[in-house]
Write a structure and sequence with these properties.
Elements: E1 16-18, H1 30-36, E2 41-44, H2 51-56, E3 60-63
Parallel strand pairs: 1-2, 2-3
């Protein structure tokens, strides 16, 4: 699946799986993401996000790996 931006890809998504440390993924609009997703689940394969902050925003968050 392809989209114009990261938000297009999250419409009705069951989860967001982050596998990149690219700059454009560092500071996303979490409210926009949560509204777009069917299930607000984030699986962070790079551990770049703050688990406590995302859980406070209503996301289920799992850091994967080191």
């Amino acid at each position: 699946m392809y989209g114009e931006n990261l938000y297009d890809m999250l419409t009705d998504a069951d989860a967001l799986l982050l596998l990149s440390e690219w700059k454009q993924f560092r500071l996303p609009d979490w409210e926009r993401i949560k509204k777009s997703m069917k299930t607000p689940l984030i699986l962070d394969g790079r551990n770049i996000y703050n688990a406590k902050e995302l859980k406070e925003k209503g996301f289920e968050y799992e850091g994967i790996g080191c």
